[in-house]
Amino acid sequence: MKTLLIIGIGAGHPEHITVQAARALARVDVFFLMDKGEHKGKLNALRREILERHATPGSYRLVEVLQPQRPLGSDYRASVDTLNAHKQAVFERLLDDEVADGECAGVLVWGDPSLYDSTLRIVEAIAADGGRALRYEVFPGVTSIQALTAAHRITLNSIAGAVQITTGRRLAAGMPDGVDTVVVMLDAHDGFKALIGQDLDIYWGAYVGTADEVLLSGRLDDLAEVIAQARQDARRRHGWIMDSYLLRRRT
Question: Which residues lie in coiled coils (predicted)?
Fold first, then answer.
């Protein structure tokens, strides 16, 4: 029997690791590090720092592989399904070739494994296949939503108000009815601009919890172009961007 631990490591700060996650890290014999390319080298550097702080020195090995890229196309769902199939093939190879029977492997997941991450779906599919003796455990982490609201010193919800978590792609349809607060996790095209004039506040953050953190907040109508420019500048400077934002109806 092989064991796989899916460990949430928080939104970017090395101290986001929970005590439970730290204990899980100490159990692992081999860690799988998914490399997203040279522009995102800081991500794996942070993973390595977390392991140096919390894993048992000399007791584990690292296997680093290049993460498959999502194919381009107009059908977003189909491209994600294709990406996950490629990731599943990578995971299956790693489990077969890099983990001995009785050993424990670990995967470090940004934020929390349950939120906008497909690792759980992929591992579920591998376990359901029945071709491997595999057990897996999941350890929650601090989400980018929690890191964002803490950085801005705000609550996630208004009193008795509903919250919706969505993407920039869906935000183009407008602010949902009956919802006071919307959190946007994936927005490559400044979807918040579609809501200018709707009397909203925005709380935006990039690289939250890291040394590169950038925060902006205020009335959306006043900040939409400022945030759009900040996103461009950050992407140009780092080669990539990891950001999220919260929109709330003004009272």
Answer: none
Q: CB of 196 within 8 A of CB of 221? A: yes
CATH architecture of 145-249: 2-Layer Sandwich (3.30)
State the Cα torsion 32-35-36-39 to the nearest 10°.
Answer: 150
d(CA 43, CA 64): 13
Question: Domain extents for the chain?
Answer: 2-142, 145-249
CA 224/CA 194 separation, integer angstroms: 10
Inter-residue contact 20 to 139 (CB < 8 Å): yes
**CA angle in degrees (0–180, nearest 5) for 200-203-205:** 150
Coil, helix or strand at residue 131:
coil
Note the CATH architecture for domain 2-142: 3-Layer(aba) Sandwich (3.40)
